[in-house]
Amino acid sequence: MSFSLAERDDTIIALATPQGVGAIAVIRLSGKNAISLTNQVFHGKNLEKQASHTIHFGTIRDGDRVIDEVLVSIFIAPKSFTKENVVEISTHGSSYIINQVIRLFIKLGARPAKPGEFTQRAFLHGQFDLAQAEAVADLIHADSEASHAAALNQMRGGFSSEIQELRAQLIHFASMIELELDFTEEDVEFASRDDLRVLVERLLRVVEELILSFDLGNVIKNGVPTVIAGKPNAGKSTLLNALLNEEKAIVSDIAGTTRDFIEDEINIGGVIFRFIDTAGLRETTDAIEKIGVSRTQEKMKTASLILYLFDLSDTDLIEINRDINKLENLGVPFLKVANKTDKAKENIISELTEKHPDTIFISAGKKENLDSLKARILELVNLDKFKTGNTVVTNIRHYDSLTKTRESLLDVLGGLDQEVTNDFLAMDIRRSLHFLGEITGEITTDDLLANIFSKFCIGK
Ligand code: GDP
């Protein structure tokens, strides 16, 4: 999907509210003729004589036939979302009315908008940069408090301004060094290599921090990868089910039947946790289960949080201590969760409380004490860094560009170390600039734009 220049001049129309019956529906028009077209079918005041940001009551008519009583909001270019003339018509929310109104406008010369075309126009007219445009999509799809806050921060430009500032400084150096290329005979130095090194090192620190923030960003957007680990029959599937409140995992009395991973998401206190149910941690001779076990260990290393679950009716302290030791060596935050309080062996609870006072005692089967487990889960996943308003990278495209920026910046540093010629240095700087520019949209291709905006829905 790319747009010809002529298409960019069209007046486009789409339903901005969801399909289906509602109390009201909002139909949005954008383009040079948005107001004049509306004026042709609107009976009420002359819309072309009204001020921007005003709302008017009247009827929409097809010839003599009244389609609906409506409210029309007017936004005169450039003071609108797309920076074009924009009209928003609030109709009654019947799909018949919506279709009739949209058809009427198409008859008059408006064109149905393509997915994301309103946002794309806003981007093309400089309303915001690409990272902010993408945040609009994220915001629409945000389904938890944390992902909503990250998208909102990005849309408001928190991310972009940081990138743009760094880029501006680097552009300055690039042009200075390129200028030197014109004076090769004279052996002048407009750009101090020491200053350049300081800037590149500073840039690298920021870029690396942003790259690191992607882990957190990813977690916010896609959920905290959480592993429930423990021996077969500890109650992992039961716990997952209890947390999900539905029977998604295979619960079985036969040891070792939960061989594969069942992933699911639950929202705890505004944060999405992606639960990964695993085969047991137990050493095993069963070939299939063995694959499961090594995959478990792989998954555990990539998890942000491990719930180590053990069975109070069938376990001893030596075994628990050994497992806890292994987990401590893994370096992933974990919680010690003792399950089956309803049939705990004698004395085990008091022994455990003494030895491991941070143990959480639950009964997954009876759904007991799950609230304190959830509270402890939230405590352990420290999203505070994000809450302080720091920039968090949530977009894989940005992550890719940042990674490539880092590589090119390292090349610049390497070039400085080896005292390479100016043309090589300039090339590496330009490459870094290119990748930084990809993020905010200073550098775009039609394919890239098409790819980004096609993910939007129509009317956005
Ligand atoms: P997994 O192999 O670790 O996934 O364990 P399962 O979730 O399949 O549970 C093994 C058995 O323990 C099943 O029969 C469950 O019903 C039972 N179970 C799980 N949690 C509890 C509990 O809190 N109390 C009791 N009495 N039984 C439980």
TrEMBL record:
It is an enzyme of class 3 (hydrolase). Its cofactor is K(+). One of its GO terms (cellular component) is cytosol. Residues 223-382 form the TrmE-type G domain. It is found in: Cytoplasm. Its main location: cytoplasm. Its EC number is 3.6.-.-. Binds 1 potassium ion per subunit. GO terms for molecular function: GTP binding; GTPase activity; identical protein binding; metal ion binding. It holds the Pfam family TrmE_N. K(+) binds at residues 233, 252, 254, 257. PROSITE patterns: G_TRME. GTP binds at residues 233-238, 252-258, 277-280. Mg(2+) binds at residues 237, 258. Keywords: Cytoplasm, GTP-binding, Hydrolase, Magnesium, Metal-binding, Nucleotide-binding, Potassium, tRNA processing. One of its GO terms (biological process) is tRNA methylation. Homodimer. Heterotetramer of two MnmE and two MnmG subunits. PANTHER family: TRNA MODIFICATION GTPASE GTPBP3, TRNA MODIFICATION GTPASE GTPBP3, MITOCHONDRIAL. NCBIfam families: mnmE_trmE_thdF, PRK05291.1-3, small_GTP. Belongs to the TRAFAC class TrmE-Era-EngA-EngB-Septin-like GTPase superfamily. TrmE GTPase family. Exhibits a very high intrinsic GTPase hydrolysis rate. Involved in the addition of a carboxymethylaminomethyl (cmnm) group at the wobble position (U34) of certain tRNAs, forming tRNA-cmnm(5)s(2)U34. This is tRNA modification GTPase MnmE. It comes from Algoriphagus formosus. The gene is mnmE.
